[in-house]
Design goal:
- There is one protein chain.
- The chain has 16 helices and 14 strands.
- It has about 475 residues and is of the alpha+beta class.
- The strands form seven sheets. Strands 1-2 form a two-stranded antiparallel sheet. A two-stranded antiparallel ribbon has the order 3-12. Strands 4-5 form a two-stranded antiparallel ribbon.
- Strand 13 and strand 14 form a beta hairpin.
């Protein structure tokens, strides 16, 4: 292994260099063990390199042992890594603290009799991160994810993966899976307005109506409300008007940064998902595929500044750890430790700076605070590989057999009339079965591959698989 080689060659390198490389290795191993602990009840725990597969350790380690090693690796990594790294994208002391805090949150949920211990680890790691005083919330939430140059200078990003246009094309980025597929040649006659730029993605998902409903609206009285409880919507019901003013006015700022709705700008286009619109689900002459069947399109994570085609070179970045995420991890620790007002303080940091919403008041009940926390985490960390794992963590920590959010049917489409003055929520026009998911408790862990059990007979299959 690299660490073993460093031990053998210690005299050839400075102590600073050796510590940094060791820290990077332990960070990577801690990250890997964190993933392993989330997915399997037991697994082989290899800590040293082996020259031959026949000498691999085949004994199994428990989930608690895997998590304990991940914790120790990340604690040691934090002690060795520098506060800043001259090479962008490499782990730092802050990255180790941030990852340790999140790993400990999961450990508290998955390790029997380990809740209080792991919540305390998560609390300490979070406070150690904040004490570094090198990160701050980025006031430009959109470009933290949608602009390559901006991201490299963001004071909020703790760790990200940056890819260069020298070796990256549009097809090999996540954007390929988010951008619709449509152009004027494919559309039915009368699908207006005409697109200025072809949209040539290969979309795999679109925002659900349920997700969009989570973005609050700042009403005329300055209070944050559900979209159907605002004066804008009540006036629409009483007097009519445009749907855009009733539903999409003064939404949480992260809505506009993350989702494109009817009559919004997307690349150089004005896109319309309303009936006879250029991206309406029925706009294509020959098929539905490639059109936003929910009535919404993802914007977060998509570079809109230049036209993107599958073979075109493009730089790209994906945010892995950032201060806003760490603030919410800390808020969750506070909630689990029954420090509700402290949790509200940290929920409000992203809610106000990124969302532009008024602060939640202190004095909320624990139940009310949890509801707002879960909403905040869902929209703040959209498309940051968090939602599924958080739902599992909460369900496991609370001993739930069914995670209701993973056991519902997202079968709604926002259909706006051609004149933009009325709407109805209809069933999805296609792919209904793809949006029906039944959750059972076995989903808390992954199945152990049979190929692994063939090699190591001591491995148990995860429960219910």
């Amino acid at each position: 292994s690299i660490m073993q080689k460093l031990e053998e060659k210690q005299g050839d390198f400075s102590e600073e260099f050796i510590n940094k490389v060791k820290g990077e290795c332990l960070f990577i191993r801690g990250f890997y063990l964190f993933q392993l602990g989330k997915e399997f009840k037991n697994a082989p725990l290899r800590l040293t390199a082996s020259q031959s597969p026949s000498t691999f350790p085949l004994a199994k380690s428990s989930q608690a042992e895997i998590w304990a090693q991940a914790e120790q690796d990340l604690i040691t990594a934090a002690s060795l890594l520098p506060v800043t790294n001259e090479v962008i994208g490499k782990p730092t002391k802050g990255a180790a603290y941030a990852l340790l805090a999140e790993a400990a949150l999961h450990g508290a949920a998955y390790i029997e009799s380990g809740q209080s211990e792991y919540y305390e680890i998560a609390r300490q790691a979070s406070e150690d991160l904040f004490a570094l005083n090198v990160y701050s919330l980025d006031t430009d939430y959109k470009n933290m994810f949608n602009d390559f140059d901006h991201s490299q200078n963001s004071k909020e990003i703790i760790l990200a993966q940056w890819k260069s246009s020298d070796n990256t094309i549009f097809q090999n980025t996540w954007m390929q899976d988010l951008v619709p597929n449509n152009d004027n040649n494919k559309n039915k006659e009368g699908s207006l307005p005409l697109l200025v730029e072809e949209l040539a993605g290969w979309p795999k998902s679109f925002p659900s109506v349920d997700l969009v409903n989570q973005y609050l609206v700042v009403d005329e009285d300055g209070k944050a409300k559900e979209w159907d409880e605002t004066s804008y919507y009540q006036n629409f019901l009483a007097k009519g008007g445009y749907v855009s003013n009733a539903l999409y006015k003064n939404r949480d700022n992260r809505f506009y940064a993350s989702i494109a709705q009817d009559s919004s700008n997307y690349f150089k286009n004005t896109i319309t998902m309303r009936k006879k619109g250029n991206l309406n689900w029925a706009s294509k002459a020959a098929e539905i595929w490639g059109t936003p069947i929910s009535g919404y399109v993802y914007r977060k994570g998509v570079y809109e500044a230049v036209r993107l085609l599958n073979s075109e070179p493009t730089s790209y970045h994906y945010v892995l750890l950032r201060l806003g995420r760490s603030y919410l991890n800390y808020a969750e620790v506070m909630l689990r430790q029954n420090k509700v007002n402290a949790a509200i303080e940290y929920i409000n940091k992203t809610r106000t700076v990124h969302g532009g919403l008024p602060e939640l008041p202190s004095g909320l009940s624990a139940e009310e605070a949890w509801k707002e926390y879960k909403r905040e985490r869902r929209i703040e960390l959209l498309h940051e590989n968090d939602r599924y794992w958080s739902l599992l963590r909460w369900g496991k920590a609370d001993g739930l057999e069914i995670v209701k959010e993973l056991n519902t049917h997202q079968n709604a489409c926002m259909e706006i009339a051609e004149d933009g003055k009325s709407f109805e929520i209809i069933d999805l026009p296609s792919n209904i079965s793809d949006n029906n998911h039944a959750f059972t408790s076995r989903r808390y862990l992954f199945p152990v591959p049979q190929s692994e059990r063939d090699v190591n007979s001591s491995l148990d299959q995860n429960p219910e698989w």
